Amino acid sequence: MSDEDRARRAKWMKDQDLAKDEPRTHKSLMDKIKPKNAIRRLVKAPGNMLEGALTNVMSPFYASNLRVLTTRLIRLYVLGVAVTYWLKYHSKSWEKRKGGFYFLGDGAMGLEVG
């Protein structure tokens, strides 16, 4: 590297340093960034209402974390119920052509096709 390249690199590195007040976040800017997708707003509404109610009781940090934890636990529970239902009522059987995974054979090795 030449001295000119070193000076240019030193200036570039200095430009990468953030000021004390950066990054700037403003409430009005954050309101504009809210999700615009209607389905996402609908899904997030109960958690946001929970967080709003909990913010009056505890700090916003803990209220936000509790909202995330609660919504993820509810999603995990719903997924578990769905998987339990699927496994209970969609059993695989070699006698019937139904089940979660069913592969048609090509007739080789005595497998019936059709």
UniProtKB/TrEMBL annotation:
GO biological process: mitochondrial electron transport, NADH to ubiquinone
Transmembrane region(s): none
Source organism superkingdom: Eukaryota
Stored InterPro entries: NADH_DH_b-subcmplx_su6
A single GO cellular-component term on record: mitochondrion
Region (Disordered): 1-21
Name of the featured protein: NADH dehydrogenase [ubiquinone] 1 beta subcomplex subunit 6
Species name: Magallana gigas
